[in-house]
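tool_call: predict_structure(chain=1)
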Amino acid sequence: MTKSYPSISIVIVTYFTGPSLWDCLRACLEQHVDQIIIVNNGNHQKTTNMLHEMQQQNAKITLIEGHGNIGFAKACNLGAKQASSDYLMFLNPDAIVQSLAITHLVQVLEKEPGLCLVGARLLNQNGTEQRGARRGRLTPWSALVSMTGLARFERYSPWFADMHWERRPLPSSPVPVPAVSGACMMFRTTDFQRVDRFDERYFLHVEDLDICRRMWDAGGKVIFVPSAEVLHIGSTSRVSVFQVNWSKAIGLVRYFYRFANSPLQKIAAISLSLLIVPAVMVRALWIALKR
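tool_result:
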């Protein structure tokens, strides 16, 4: 008897995404998926009307109104509650899955008997690997090295190792990594529930690093799948770069405090965070000046 293909639900959270949203949805509809759950955190009325029309025309699409911008983690969990499939994939609204990407993610998950989440290889529009698709362990020091540009000295000392691994040689097969990107990650639905879903105390950013860390801590695996390619446009939402980076900075502080194992480590995490938060905001200013 031929083994049946598992059912798959995709959760997409959209907030004033722009034209890339339609490319994302078209690509999803071309894949072997059973359900596409769109959580509308905020869009122009014209876009919202078009989403309602898509829902009426395609039985695979479920549209959920988030009642304003409730945050990425909370919106993902809201969408996941409506999922009725074996596998659950979270996809950014400006991410366009390439041919067989979802199939490759599923194939890796099917080979893993224990707790597991898998992540795709994110690509820039020029075809290069995007920052953040595979990452090393997040610590206050690794975050500071990454944010301040100290990673340029990695070739001189491992102390300055970049937590972002896109410049490392691409593995030829799926490999365990400390973390992958929430722009495209997949779980068995039961595994997502077992690790207690996304932590809704993160508003935007770091929730993906948090759930990867909890997956490892629970005895599971986080696997980067290089053959699962996803074009990620990035920065399409109509939101201030300073607001985004402030959310990231607060998320980092929460992460470091949460995973500190002793009172002394918590004090150290807070102390280093006093350096990390300004570094994140200076980086935001640099990004804004370059635009």
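agent: The chain has a mean pLDDT of 90. Proceeding to next step.
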